[in-house]
Amino acid sequence: MNTSSNATVMSNRDFYRQREYAALHRIPGVYELIHSNVDQRLSLEKKYPDAGFALFIVSNLFFHDRELTNIHMNAYTDILDGGNIVDIRFRYELDMKNYVERHLWDD
Hints:
Elements: H1 12-24, H2 30-34, H3 38-47, H4 49-59, H5 66-80, H6 85-103
């Protein structure tokens, strides 16, 4: 039995990079931010806050704290799934506010 196929074998990393690329490029301003220089970045982040947020999430997925990692991973997953970026950001900010309130007095 011949089980060969012409299908491309893709690693998990490649799979998520492709999903990430597609999801990010649907968000207005991401392309401009990615290709901006340091001098342009601040003004572009003000012009495209959702793009800045999405790039922040993609760049900051893992933390020393499991709860923080989960907050970021939930936002990341929603971005990859094409969710409404305004809703994702709202939930992220609420989750972060609740996290800070719970851990404000931790040592």
